Amino acid sequence: MMVDPPSDVHPECRRAVRVRPGPLRVRLHRACEGILVDISETGALVQIPWSMQPDRKVTLNLEAHDALLQLPGRVVRSVPHQLQLPEATLARKEYHVAVEFSDLPAEQVAALRRLIKNE
């Protein structure tokens, strides 16, 4: 389990511990798939191919440990993230999108806690 706060945020400002469960695929809607960067009980950071507007309502769909988590929330911020692949000659721009969870059903809270605890 890796737990790292982003470099632009002081650890004492975090409301919940974030974990990096590994490269898990996420979906924010039908056409928007990406990779989970980190997750906590209050939100997640995902890497996707394009930017999203702040305050946009989304549902983060995440498959982990044979369970599908469907976590409703809103986009807090979206910042460009330069991606350099070792085998590529050109860098590709993706976006780190921060999602804050809201109104999670009890069963989703329990599944999210299991995911975080197991990592």
Short account of what is shown:
The protein is mainly β. The chain has one helix at residues 106-118; strands spanning 25-29, 32-39, 43-48, 57-64, 67-83, 92-101. Helix content is 11%, strand content 45%.
How are the secondary structure elements laid out?
Layout: E1 25-29, E2 32-39, E3 43-48, E4 57-64, E5 67-83, E6 92-101, H1 106-118
Antiparallel strand pairs: 1-2, 1-4, 2-3, 3-6, 4-5, 5-6
Characterization of the model:
The protein is mainly beta and 119 residues long. The chain has a single domain, classed as predicted glycosyltransferase like domains (Thrombin, subunit H). Helices cover 11% and strands 45% of the residues. Strands 1-2-3-6-5-4 form a 6-stranded antiparallel barrel. A hairpin with a 3-residue loop joins β2 and β3. The protein is globular and about 45 Å long.
Give average pLDDT, whole number: 83
CATH architecture descriptor text: Beta Barrel
Q: Termini, distance in Å?
A: 5 Å
| The CATH C-level class name | Mainly Beta
SS field, number of helical segments: 1
Total number of β-strand segments?
6
Strand content: over 45%
Low-confidence spans: 1-12
Computed over alpha carbons, the radius of gyration is: 14 Å
What would you call the shape? globular
Strand order of the largest sheet: 1-2-3-6-5-4
Seen as an oligomer or otherwise, the chain set is single chain
Which secondary-structure class do the elements indicate?
mainly beta
Number of domains: 1
Q: Tell me the name of the CATH homologous superfamily.
A: predicted glycosyltransferase like domains
Helix content: 10-25%
